[in-house]
C-alpha cells in the first residue's frame, strides 16, 4: 500500500480474523511487543481469578461449580456403599493403610468433556485422549497427595461381647463397609486449562462433602444411614494441594539455531494459546492442614525441551506466590 | 466400550445408601403452596458458553429451604439445564446433500442429576427425550435458509426433577417417569433461548409447558368434583400422591401452533383441558423467555 493514500476497502481485517488466519504470528507479535502482552489482555505471568460456588446440587453429597475466565466446570461428589463382604480380594489385616485406599478403589473421579463445551467436544463419542488423561491425572494426584483419610470412609461395627470372649478383651471393631466417592466432573464451557479448573472443583467439592451417619444393622444384615443433617459428618481433608498450569510458546524450530529462539512461559493458558503452544508445565504444591511443611508435590512437564531448571523454578515460585489468593477463593483459612 | 475408557466403580460393586428415619422424626410430603395455574419461578440466562454459537442456562430453584427440614435429603425438586448450540456448520464431505438444515439433538443427564446415580452412557430415556426435543424444534427452525449444513443442540441436565416423593414406597422412582416430562418442558424452553442466541432463523419462539391430572385435589384451592381429577400446571411430582396423566406441549404463541405434544397416562375426558393447561404453562414460560432474550440483546 502506498503512503498517503487511504487503505483500500477490504484489505484490513479486525484482530479476530488475523487470530483465526495466522494464530502463531498473531501471538508472537503480541509477545514480542516491548511490554509483552497476550491477546486476552493479560501479562504472561497473570492468571485468571477463579470463582467457586459450593453446595448448589441437591442430590450430591458435595458439589462445586468453578468458573475460571470462560472455562466452567461442575463437580459432584456422590457417596455409595461398598460392603466389605463384596470385595473379591479382601486385604489382609496388616495391609498398608496408605495403599488400601488405592487398592480398594474408593475414589472414582471422571472428567467428562463431551458435553458440547466447545465445538471440538461434541457428545456422541466415547472419552478421547484429553478426557482420559485428565481423569487419570486427577486420580493419581488424589492418591499421591494423601488427601482423604481412609478412616472417614470406613463404616465400622463393634461386635457385641458374647460369653465365649475373655472378660478382659476390649470390644472388637470390624470394618463392615466402605464409602465410595464418585467424583464426577463435567466441563460446561471450555476455554483452555481444564486441569486447573477441574482440580479446584474437586478440592472445593470434597471440602463441601458430608457423609451421613451409617451403621451396620446385624438383624437385616445391611448398612443403614440416617437422613438427619445434624448427624452427617464432613470429610477431614489432610492436604489441599494447589495446581497451576503454564504453557510455553517458543519460536524455535528445527530449521533455526537454538540460540536464536525466543520463548515465553504463559501462566493459565486460554483456549487460543493452548492450541498454539506445544509444551506445558503443571506444578502442584501441597498445603497440609495438619501442620506438616508444605512443598512441591508434583511437577509435570511435557511437549518439548524449552523449559529448563531455571524456568521451572520460576514457575514453582509463581505458584507459591499465588497460594494466598487461591486459599482465599476456596475459603481456606 | 465406555468401561474401558473411564474409571470404574471398585470391584464388588457399590449400592446407594438406604435411609432409616428414626421414629421421632415425622416425614411429611411437601405440599404445593402455589395455585393450580401458577408456574414456579424460572431463571433463564443466555450466553454462558462463549465458544459455542449459542448457549443458555435454565433453572427452577428449589421451592423450600433445605435447612428447615433438618434432613440431608432434598425435599423438593429443582431443575438445572444447560444448552449449547453449535452451528450452522458445514456437513462432512461424505454426507448426502440436504436442502434443509440438519438438526441433531443430544440430551444427557449428569451422573449426579437424579436420586439414583446415572451412568455416562446414554440410555433409552435420554434418547427418547432427544427425539421429542427434535420434533419440537424442527417445527420452528426455518431450515431452507441453510442447505448442506447441520446444527447440533446439546443439552446437559445438571439436576433433574424427581419422579415422586422419596418417602413413598418404592422411593418415588417407580412412578412412571413423570419427572421426565417436566425436564422436557424445560429443555424446549432452554433450547429455544440458545437457538436465538446462536442467531438461527426461527418462525417464532417456542416454549415448553407441562400439566398433569392429579388424583388428590391438586394442592390449595383444587377440589376434585365427583370422579374428575384436578388439573395442575407445572407440577413438582413429589407434591402429588397420585398423578393420573401428564402432558407436555411445545407451543408457538404468536402463531397459536403446537409443534410437539407428548401425553402420558389416561386422561379420559379431560384430555382437551389437559392440553389447554399445558399450553397455558407454555405461555407463562414464554414471558420469561422473551425477557431473557431481550436482556441478551441489550
TrEMBL record, chain A:
Record has ATP-binding as a keyword: no
Gene Ontology cellular-component terms listed: cytoplasmic exosome (RNase complex); nuclear exosome (RNase complex); nucleolus
Keyword annotations: Cytoplasm, Exosome, Nucleus, RNA-binding, rRNA processing
Domain Exoribonuclease phosphorolytic: 46-212
Places the protein is found: Cytoplasm; Nucleus, Nucleolus
GO MF term list: mRNA 3'-UTR AU-rich region binding
PANTHER family given in the database record: EXOSOME COMPLEX COMPONENT RRP43 (PTHR11097:SF9), EXOSOME COMPLEX EXONUCLEASE RIBOSOMAL RNA PROCESSING PROTEIN (PTHR11097)
Protein name: Ribosomal RNA-processing protein 43
Organism expressing this protein natively: Baudoinia panamericana (strain UAMH 10762) (Angels' share fungus)
TrEMBL record, chain B:
Comp. bias regions, Basic and acidic residues: 25-41
One Gene Ontology MF term: RNA binding
Residue ranges of the region described as Disordered: 1-41
Compositionally biased residues, Low complexity: 9-22
Location(s), subcellular: Cytoplasm; Nucleus
Domain Exoribonuclease phosphorolytic: 38-200
GO cellular component: cytoplasmic exosome (RNase complex); nuclear exosome (RNase complex); nucleolus
GO biological process: nuclear mRNA surveillance; poly(A)-dependent snoRNA 3'-end processing; rRNA catabolic process; rRNA processing; U4 snRNA 3'-end processing
InterPro entries: ExoRNase_PH_dom1, ExoRNase_PH_dom2_sf, PNPase/RNase_PH_dom_sf, Ribosomal_Su5_D2-typ_SF, RNase_PH
Primary site of residence: cytoplasm
Keywords recorded for this protein, A-Z: Cytoplasm, Exosome, Nucleus, RNA-binding, rRNA processing
Pfam family, any one: RNase_PH
Family listed: Belongs to the RNase PH family.
Entry protein name: Exoribonuclease phosphorolytic domain-containing protein
Organism: Baudoinia panamericana (strain UAMH 10762)
Taxonomic lineage from the root: Eukaryota, Fungi, Dikarya, Ascomycota, Pezizomycotina
